[in-house]
Write a structure and sequence with these properties.
The protein folds into three domains: 131 residues, Sandwich (Immunoglobulin-like); 84 residues, Immunoglobulins (Immunoglobulin-like, Sandwich), CATH 2.60.40.10; 99 residues, Sandwich (Immunoglobulin-like). 5% of the residues lie in helices and 46% in strands. A hairpin with a 4-residue loop joins strand 14 and strand 15. With 368 residues, the chain is mostly beta strands. The protein has a five-stranded antiparallel sheet with strand order 4-3-6-9-8, with no helix packed on it. Strands 12-19-18-14-15 form a five-stranded mixed sheet, with no helix packed on it. A four-stranded mixed sheet has the order 5-11-10-7, with no helix packed on it. The chain is flat and about 85 Å long. The chain binds 2-acetamido-2-deoxy-beta-D-glucopyranose (5 copies). It comes from Knipowitschia caucasica (Caucasian dwarf goby). InterPro entries: Ig-like_dom, Ig-like_dom_sf, Ig-like_fold, Ig_sub, Ig_sub2, PDGFRL.
Length: 368
């Protein structure tokens, strides 16, 4: 609650200030206004080669400037906060993605519309917190079936610069960052000015983390990226940024090192009901708890090579959140037998396999 209060106050403050010196994007002639200039000479525009709106590979994402001028947006765009933004993307059926922050608050400042031959996204009074990736993409529809044309997905990362918020405001004031030896970690101190000089600091003992080398790099759209970090990077850290004015400090980050034994699945087997007799139904459930992105393949061995009736198996998985940043994948395979007979008693083996290895676990089922 306190977090929201602070943030909301910050947002209101940001919206109150307009017009400090800003980089104005260069203006380009709207290609639709008849003639374009090339190297100082007036030339007739070439007729479009196809009906396809725009050339593949070239962004169709434009920013509407005033008086019918458009600016084609590249990978990154720096815009002043406070000034309303209109983006357009050519196409009859345009979809948009934008920072999830704007969805979280179900923000009425953002609206998207489809107007005849283009899609439109309007964001009024953007603030530093709206900094992020904005994409438009073309939906291909065939009757009622629609799909994303992945070749026509255009993105720009927009920095809403704000000299009072060199860091993109964070909802979390003390963020946990998990370090794992087998992957990179990110200290998410994103900035609103890509030119800002940013450094990473340990709180106790106070020291700056050297970025001279390849292990720690700064990406203004993500923060500090730590390649295969070790336990020596544990502790409380913050980022410091400086642009033209006084340096600014980010929120704090607690870096925690977690040993993750990436290995064969850890499997448990359970039979229900606990005891069975002839004619009963039975489920044998094989469960694996593991990393969210590691899929599991299940295989069963029935005690009898020729069971009396067909045996059904069914696999599924779900993700379970275990507090900040930790997610476990619960994968299960259920073997179901109806109308048990003597041929179904014996040892059931569940084999669970992931990219690291295979584990087999057995359970005995007998009448009684
Ligand atoms: C823009 O992004 C594309 C695709 O990610 C990349 O190939 C290209 O080099 C980037 N251009 C610039 C100027 O960063
Ligand atoms: C978001 O806001 C709109 C209108 O303000 C409302 O109709 C909609 O139900 C809201 N959605 C959520 C998830 O709060
Ligand atoms: C378009 O590309 C962006 C950036 O790669 C991605 O975040 C977004 O999900 C993509 N949109 C679709 C619909 O695939
Ligand atoms: C980076 O480190 C190397 C050796 O570790 C040193 O020679 C070089 O001067 C350093 N560069 C900077 C910019 O600190
Ligand atoms: C076996 O599992 C199915 C589906 O999960 C369930 O409907 C059924 O009641 C279970 N049977 C027993 C004996 O636990």
């Amino acid at each position: 609650m306190k977090t929201c209060l602070l943030l909301c106050v910050a947002l209101v403050l940001m919206q109150l200030q307009y017009g400090f010196s800003q980089q104005q994007p260069k203006r380009k002639k709207d290609p639709g206004d008849g003639r374009v200039r090339q190297g100082g000479k007036r030339v007739k525009p070439r007729p479009p080669k196809t009906k396809d709106p725009g050339v593949r590979g070239q962004s169709l994402l434009t920013q509407v400037l005033d008086k019918g001028h458009f600016l084609r947006l590249g990978n990154t765009t720096v815009l002043p906060s406070g000034r309303s933004l209109e983006l357009r993307c050519k196409g009859a059926n345009i979809g948009w993605t934008y920072p999830s922050y704007l969805d979280t608050f179900n923000d009425s400042r953002l609206s998207t519309n489809q107007i005849d031959k283009y899609g439109q996204l309007v964001l009024t009074a953007p603030s530093a917190a709206d900094t992020g990736l904005y994409s438009c993409w073309v939906n291909l529809c065939d009757g009622r079936e629609c799909s994303v044309d992945i070749d026509r997905n255009y993105s720009t990362y927009i920095f809403f610069s704000d000299k009072d918020n060199l860091f993109v405001p964070s909802l979390i004031h003390f963020e946990l960052v998990y370090l794992r030896p087998d992957r990179s970690a990110v200290v998410p101190c994103r900035v609103t000015d890509p030119q800002a000089r940013v450094s990473l600091h340990r709180e106790v003992p106070p020291e700056e983390v050297s970025t001279n080398g390849t292990d720690v790099t700064f990406d203004p759209t993500r923060g500090f990226v730590l390649q295969s970090p070790g336990p020596e990077l544990q502790g409380v850290f913050y980022c410091r940024a400086q642009s033209r004015g006084a340096p600014q400090i980010s929120t704090k980050f607690q870096l925690l090192y977690v040993e993750v034994p990436s290995g064969a699945p850890f499997v448990s087997l359970q039979t229900s009901p606990d005891s069975v007799a002839d004619g009963d139904s039975m489920n044998v459930t094989c469960t694996v708890l593991g990393e969210p992105e590691v899929p599991i393949d299940f295989n069963w061995i029935h005690p009898n090579p020729e069971p009396s009736r067909p045996v059904q198996t069914h696999s599924h998985w779900r993700l379970v959140k275990r507090g900040l940043g930790h997610t476990t994948r619960v994968s299960q395979s259920v073997l179901s037998i109806k109308d048990l007979s003597s041929r179904d008693y014996g040892s059931y083996i569940c084999k669970a396999k992931n990219k690291y290895g295979e584990t087999a676990v057995a359970t005995d089922v007998h009448a009684g």
